[in-house]
Amino acid sequence: MPKLGMEPIRREALVTAAIAEIGAAGSLDVTVSAISKRAGMSSALAHHYFGNKDQIFLAAMRHILAGFAVEVHSRLSLANTPRDRLKALVEASFARSCFDPEVISAWLNFYVKAHSSPDAMRLLRVYQRRLRSNLIHALRPISRKPEELADAIAALIDGLYIRAALGAPISRDPAATILAFTAPHLEDDQ
């Protein structure tokens, strides 16, 4: 007899376990068995809820993106100026929950997976478009070239994630590094 109300709890446990396993392995070379064992359930149950490892990984990335959205919304709710909006977006990218080593590893593998998986590519494009749109919105009142600057900032964010995933030293406050780079390209708030 299935336990009512357990599905969301089990799905969450599998997603969390997938992120941890990918982080530990540093790659997608993890098994559903390892993920389900970490989550404290059978691999048959994992297959029942998600179908296969790719679907578990996509659910894990949706979970990571949802966490990022929470970070963005909470910071944007406090932003009063375009510069505040820009700062909020960049700082959200490096919030503790988003810039955790396991999450960084998942991101790196997500970029790789997007080359071979249409579903992963679609999810990646949604994230990229949303970030670019938010950056352009923040930059439009304070930059002559908001699109170009938004693309540069997004590339800097991606670059710092890649460097962190590869074990390169990263400044204590990567958001401050990006904002310092951005400052000379901004006009005074209007």
TrEMBL record:
GO MF terms, alphabetically ordered: DNA-binding transcription factor activity; transcription cis-regulatory region binding
Pathway membership: Amine and polyamine biosynthesis; betaine biosynthesis via choline pathway [regulation]
Signal peptide segment: none
GO annotation terms (biological process): glycine betaine biosynthetic process from choline; negative regulation of DNA-templated transcription
Superkingdom: Bacteria
SUPFAM superfamilies documented for this protein: Homeodomain-like, Tetracyclin repressor-like, C-terminal domain
Pfam families reported in the protein's UniProt record: TetR_C_6 (PF13977), TetR_N (PF00440)
Domain HTH tetR-type: 8-68
UniProt entry keywords in alphabetical sequence: DNA-binding, Repressor, Transcription, Transcription regulation
DNA-binding feature ranges: 31-50
Keyword Repressor: yes
NCBIfam families per record: betaine_BetI, PRK00767.1
Role this protein plays: Repressor involved in the biosynthesis of the osmoprotectant glycine betaine. It represses transcription of the choline transporter BetT and the genes of BetAB involved in the synthesis of glycine betaine.
PANTHER family from the UniProt entry: HTH-TYPE TRANSCRIPTIONAL REGULATOR BETI, HTH-TYPE TRANSCRIPTIONAL REGULATOR RUTR
Protein name: HTH-type transcriptional regulator BetI
Organism the protein comes from: Litoreibacter ascidiaceicola
